[in-house]
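Summary for the steering committee. One of the milestones for this cycle was to obtain a three-dimensional model of the protein with calcium ion bound, which we needed before selecting residues for the alanine scan. The sequence and ligand used are listed below.
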Amino acid sequence: MKNDVLIFISSLAEETGTVLKTYFERPHRLAEYKPDKTLLTDADLAANHLIVDSIRKAFPNDHILSEEGNTIFPSDGRPTWIIDPLDGTTNFSQGLHYWGVSIARFVGGWPQAAGLSFPVLGENYMAFRGEGAWLNGKSLKVPPGDSHMVSFFLCDSRLHRRYTTTIRYKPRILGSAAYNFCGIAKGVGVVGLESIPKIWDIAGSWLVLSEAGGAILPVNGEIFPLTRGRDYNGFSIPMLGAADQTLLDKAKAKIEFVMQA
Ligand code: IPD
Ligand code: CA
Ligand code: CA
């Protein structure tokens, strides 16, 4: 079962990444605003369609929760796929390369498997709970936090509205919550803070960073197992990640909540 799920999830992420790339390479990328004022492109919908269809065929008894579909975590306890068909839509629509697809399978309310693809960057991540994480097929281990000459603090553009921080690392806003935590797993950042991600933004990269030996924690208390019957659309999950637990503890002490925006 483990290998079946891993092969399926990683191939589906890569296949979806390839489809997204064909949309990205078109001269005009069409975008519109959703009611919550975030962007939606035809590529988000095409990717969602492909992923949902493939999961339904391969795992007909599982549920699906998607940013572009059902957002309620089911109440019957069956395995549930949590997908963000395109994370980093704003970057995508403006031609910036940091975007990808994130697919995770949850069992018992916990992430069991994850597949993420950032096709323009050429980075494909996968992870399985208790078994490890991989980048482009090779085992992925977070490099030690003190091995960097320069250290980046990966964060999001709305951070300053809610938090003040005295984290001393150089801030970088890459525009993809999923990439931020995969980036720490890969060693491009040592600390990351996303101030208002939804479950689909972080479901896959949470597992990648955890399994790669990093530390990742919701700022406001544990969220797993997910709550049956909860609509995760109205529910932000501020998330802090770091190369290791010591760095995470130090970073947490340097973050102050300022307001509910
Ligand atoms: C967004 C991106 C962004 C993060 C936002 C997310 P989307 O996802 O991950 O970096 O700061 O919180 O909503 O809308 O591009 O899928
Ligand atoms: Ca997203
Ligand atoms: Ca999205």
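Key point for the committee: The mean pLDDT is 94.
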